[in-house]
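Protocol step 4 of 5: obtain the predicted structure for the target chain.
Materials: sequence only (see below). No template structures provided, no constraints applied. The aim of this step is simply to have a reference model before the mutagenesis design in step 5. Sequence pasted as it appears in the construct record:
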Amino acid sequence: MTATLEAPRTAPPAAPARHRNRTGTLLTVVAWVVGVLFIIPVLWMLLTSLHSETDAATNPPSIFAPLTLEGYANFFGAQTGTSPWPSLLNSLTASVLSTALVLVLAIPAAYALSIRPVRKWTDVLFFFLSTKMLPVVAGLLPVYLIAQQIGLLDNIWLLIILYTSMNLPIAVWMMRSFLAEVPVEVLEAAAIDGCGLMRTLRTVVGPMILPGIAATSLICFIFSWNELLFARVLTATVAQTAPVFLTSFVTSQGLFLATVCAASVVVSLPVLIAGFAAQDKLVQGLSLGAIK
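Step 4 output (structure tokens):
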């Protein structure tokens, strides 16, 4: 009696693999659509800035209208004679100095809350976070009255102090996430070699958390550069920042759309340049858990 051997059955194609491929394709398409939707207003602003005021104000808009640099010339004072450079310099000064002060204060604080944790460090972090829960407008009047009493109205140093205090909580949270990833063995080895706290932060911890420093710096810089409310109320002419100067083109005579778009493009350039310059470190920093 001969035994019959059945041919081995071939396994059907794995359905989950096809499902994952379809899901990945769908997510890619959705990501592209969302990206295009985000970039369209920026491109529209750039195109409008290259039109004349007459063409920019037409309804529907004249997409194929002749291009001109009239809006940029008006922004740089071709008609009014008012230069935007002092305002841009004020914004740059306040943003850079406040970001530097934030890092000087946030890194040691985050070190104490992560690598050398203090007692009830979670309560400390919650306190930092709770300071962001107060609406900015609620503290506007007290800050104004204090600045008036001490003679700091229309002073760039007042904005630097305010921006530092506003960005410090988020910087501590972000830097703590990075410092928590530093291996304790590295710190112990540095201590055995005789490194003090400041030298450890500067030569050992600093290079390891450089992506986190870049991500935190960029976010603090953007927050400071874009801040309008305090700068609008607490400054006049001497310490006027770029966002405040931009609002000067919205007058009782109407909205000069092409000039406003040109001003928006120029004011956005420092943030875009900083973002592209720190792109690699920023992506690496955010992917390592800078925001949790």
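Step 4 remarks: The chain is about 70% helix and 0% strand. The chain has a mean pLDDT of 83.
Proceed to step 5.
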